[in-house]
Amino acid sequence: MEKEINAGYTITDRLTVANAEFVIGQNENAPAKFVTWKCRKGEKDYSRGHYCNDRLTALEDLCNRALDEVHYLKSLRQEHNTGENPVHQSEKKKHAPER
To answer: In tens digits, what is the pLDDT along the chain, a chain of 99 residues?
Structure first.
Protein backbone atom coordinates (compact mmCIF):
# COMPACT_ATOMS: atom_id res chain seq x y z
CA MET A 1 0.00 0.00 0.00
CA GLU A 2 1.28 3.44 -0.94
CA LYS A 3 2.12 5.91 1.82
CA GLU A 4 -0.56 8.60 2.15
CA ILE A 5 0.41 12.16 3.04
CA ASN A 6 -1.88 15.09 3.82
CA ALA A 7 -0.63 18.61 4.63
CA GLY A 8 2.83 17.21 5.34
CA TYR A 9 1.54 14.54 7.74
CA THR A 10 1.88 10.83 6.97
CA ILE A 11 -1.36 8.95 7.67
CA THR A 12 -0.51 6.18 10.13
CA ASP A 13 -3.87 4.97 11.45
CA ARG A 14 -7.43 4.85 10.19
CA LEU A 15 -10.83 4.02 11.71
CA THR A 16 -14.00 3.78 9.64
CA VAL A 17 -17.49 4.17 11.11
CA ALA A 18 -20.27 3.89 8.52
CA ASN A 19 -19.56 6.69 6.01
CA ALA A 20 -17.06 8.54 8.19
CA GLU A 21 -13.34 7.94 8.38
CA PHE A 22 -11.01 9.17 11.12
CA VAL A 23 -7.25 9.19 10.67
CA ILE A 24 -4.05 10.01 12.54
CA GLY A 25 -1.33 11.93 10.74
CA GLN A 26 2.26 12.20 11.94
CA ASN A 27 4.92 14.79 11.06
CA GLU A 28 8.06 14.82 13.21
CA ASN A 29 9.02 18.27 11.88
CA ALA A 30 5.73 20.01 12.69
CA PRO A 31 5.12 21.98 15.92
CA ALA A 32 2.27 19.54 16.69
CA LYS A 33 3.65 16.17 15.66
CA PHE A 34 0.26 14.44 15.42
CA VAL A 35 -3.17 15.32 14.10
CA THR A 36 -6.51 13.54 13.82
CA TRP A 37 -8.79 14.36 10.92
CA LYS A 38 -12.24 13.37 9.75
CA CYS A 39 -13.40 12.76 6.20
CA ARG A 40 -16.11 10.92 4.33
CA LYS A 41 -15.26 7.29 3.62
CA GLY A 42 -13.44 6.94 0.31
CA GLU A 43 -12.63 10.65 0.06
CA LYS A 44 -9.40 12.40 0.97
CA ASP A 45 -10.91 15.76 1.94
CA TYR A 46 -9.64 15.79 5.52
CA SER A 47 -11.08 18.41 7.85
CA ARG A 48 -11.64 19.32 11.48
CA GLY A 49 -8.08 18.66 12.55
CA HIS A 50 -7.31 18.07 16.20
CA TYR A 51 -3.58 18.64 16.75
CA CYS A 52 -1.62 16.81 19.46
CA ASN A 53 1.94 16.65 20.73
CA ASP A 54 2.11 12.93 21.47
CA ARG A 55 0.91 9.70 19.90
CA LEU A 56 -1.15 8.46 22.88
CA THR A 57 -3.18 11.67 22.97
CA ALA A 58 -3.76 11.40 19.21
CA LEU A 59 -4.81 7.76 19.54
CA GLU A 60 -7.21 8.63 22.35
CA ASP A 61 -8.69 11.46 20.26
CA LEU A 62 -9.07 9.15 17.25
CA CYS A 63 -10.97 6.59 19.34
CA ASN A 64 -13.15 9.26 20.99
CA ARG A 65 -14.09 10.78 17.65
CA ALA A 66 -15.02 7.37 16.26
CA LEU A 67 -17.07 6.58 19.40
CA ASP A 68 -18.87 9.92 19.11
CA GLU A 69 -19.85 8.93 15.57
CA VAL A 70 -21.09 5.52 16.79
CA HIS A 71 -23.20 7.19 19.49
CA TYR A 72 -24.60 9.65 16.99
CA LEU A 73 -25.60 6.86 14.59
CA LYS A 74 -27.17 4.85 17.41
CA SER A 75 -29.22 7.86 18.50
CA LEU A 76 -30.47 8.34 14.93
CA ARG A 77 -31.45 4.69 14.74
CA GLN A 78 -33.23 4.89 18.10
CA GLU A 79 -35.15 7.99 17.00
CA HIS A 80 -36.13 6.25 13.79
CA ASN A 81 -37.18 3.04 15.54
CA THR A 82 -39.23 4.72 18.28
CA GLY A 83 -40.85 7.24 15.97
CA GLU A 84 -39.80 10.13 18.21
CA ASN A 85 -39.55 13.46 16.46
CA PRO A 86 -40.54 12.17 13.03
CA VAL A 87 -38.51 14.06 10.47
CA HIS A 88 -38.47 13.57 6.74
CA GLN A 89 -35.14 12.34 5.40
CA SER A 90 -34.48 15.61 3.56
CA GLU A 91 -34.93 17.59 6.80
CA LYS A 92 -32.47 15.53 8.86
CA LYS A 93 -29.09 16.95 9.69
CA LYS A 94 -26.33 15.19 7.82
CA HIS A 95 -24.09 15.07 10.88
CA ALA A 96 -24.13 16.21 14.46
CA PRO A 97 -21.61 18.93 15.30
CA GLU A 98 -18.36 17.70 16.77
CA ARG A 99 -17.35 18.70 20.22
So the answer is: 689 999 999 999 999 999 999 999 999 999 999 999 999 998 989 999 999 999 999 999 999 999 999 999 999 998 888 875 555 444 444 555 564
Separation CA 58–CA 26 (nearest Å): 9
> Residue 47 carries which side chain, given as an amino acid letter?
S
> Cα 65 vs. chain centroid, distance in angstroms?
5
Run of H or E including 98? none
pTM: 0.77
Nearest to 23, CA basis, from 31, 8, 35:
35
